Amino acid sequence: MQVFQRIGRAPIILVLPALAVLLIVFGVPTVQLFLESLNAPNFSIQNYSSFLGQYANLRVLLQTLEISAIATVICLLVGYPTAYLISTASKRARMVLIVLVVIPYLTSGLARTYSWVVILGDNGLINSALVNWGLISSPLPLIYNRAAVYVGMVHIMLPMMILPLVSVMLGINTSLIAAAKSMGAKPSTAFWRVYFPLSMPGVRSGTLLVFVICLGFYITPAALGGLGDAMLSTFIASQVSTGFNMGSVSASSFVLLAIAVVMLSVFGLNLSGTQDSAPKLRKGFMERFSLLRVVKQYLNELSVASRSKQWSKALYQAQGDGGWSRFAGSLTLTLVIFFLLFPEVVVIIMSFSSDATLQFPPSGFSLQWYGSFFGDEAWYGAAWTSIKIGLAVAALSTVLGTLAAYGLSRIASDFRGWLTMAILAPITIPVIVVGVASYFGLVNLGIIGTETGIVLAHTIGAISYVVVIVSATLANFDRRLEQAAKSMGARPFTAFMRVTLPLIRPGIIGGALFAFIHSFDEVVVTSLVSGYSVRTLPLKMWENIRNEIDPTVAAVASLLTLLPILWMIALYVTWWRARSSSQNTVLEANA
Question: For a 10 Å CB count at each end of the chain, is N or C smaller?
Answer without folding.
Answer: C
